[in-house]
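[agent] plan:
  1. take the single chain provided in the ticket
  2. run structure prediction with default settings
  3. attach structure tokens to the ticket
  4. add a short note for the reviewer (M.T.)
[agent] executing step 1
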Amino acid sequence: MRTFCNGGLTRRTLLQLGVATAATMATPWPLKRLAMAASAAPHFLVVLIADGGWDVTQVFDVHDPLDGTDGVDVDVPTAISGLPPSQIATLGGLTYMSNPVTRPTVDLFFSKWAPRTAIVNGFGTRSTSHTQSMQLTLTGYLDPTRADFAVMAAHHNGGDLPLPHLLLSGESFGGTLAGLSGRLGGQMRQAFAYDAIGDGRLAVSGVGEAYVQQALEYDRLLAEARSEAVTGKLAAYADANGRADRLARLASSLNINSGSGTTLGTSLAQAFRSGMTTSITLSAGGGFDTHADNTQQNGRYEQVFSLLDGVVSQLAIEPGVAAASMLDETTLVLMSEFARTPLLNGDNGKDHHPWNSMLLVGKNVRGGSSLGRSDSEQNGVKVNLATGQPDDTGVVLDVTHVVAGLLTVMGANASEYLPSVAPLTAVVA
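[agent] step 2 finished; step 3 output follows
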């Protein structure tokens, strides 16, 4: 069954989705967004997840591919693959592994964005399970009450937005902050699905109407339990009405399946400028779980860096909220759940390895920085948390140090979210 959207959808669905309670909706968002821009520049976050567990020696974690004594195989031997070996390259102060023949888009990205990019190497994920390592890399813990860094950043930078953290695709862990996060996909996308019917009105999907009715019943029970709050909710509902209308329009306008980084960058910028969200997680592609023929990693990296370069390049020309460029207001994080073993196996592939790398680019990132390091067995070594460089008096990087560092990049006090964890402040500009 389809029913016409007459404005009732917005104030009701918001409750069902758990985006925010009506009590937090007192200030109209066009005015609040302008106030934010006037008082302090906003800080947005985009997390791109390349799933499967990438071979970090192909791009991030630098080891000499011609050194056969260091215990790390960078390439499948030329005699077998027919491909030229990789080489160590430095651009904009950042050192990485280059192969213009097999991974030209990686070189293209760093030629443009190395001065604004940081790489973090040699941090432990403590697991080689895809599921566990994904949770650990995003949250630092195997604890269902822990939120991931994208959700925590949303709590800090826009906890009272209609949808502080927007999960377009991929993985996210809301923990105790789950009410701040919503997925535009599956049931949520259906709830916001609507069609024009020719006379300027909209038809809401049957699934959406079901959510409306459920949320209305929730509202009725809440009003009965707290009758004294009913009067105070009227003004808040009026504002929620308009805000959720905009959320519905956002859901329909985001182009997230085109495969084009440029198109995606436009959509992300629109989402941020709309005042709907401050943190977005999405899949950057994947297929990195290549236990045989490690040359497959090349194509995977080409796809991921093509998307990343398109997104960053488009954000750089999109107008920001307070800054001239949306990239000046946005931090992007590219990650996978773990890395792959230092040595090739009998099938010239690599298996799971619990030491990882991560890339950051954009606002508040210490650009041109290669931080952390792995040894001849591709295990992390002790580093100074303030410099990110090897230091015998430092610590071996754990994923919790990295998560705390990401929160610091986003302007949050990491100790409020990860008590007793020292952040990797070397990533902060």
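[agent] step 4 note for reviewer: The CA atoms of residues 12 and 217 lie 9 Å apart.
[agent] ticket updated
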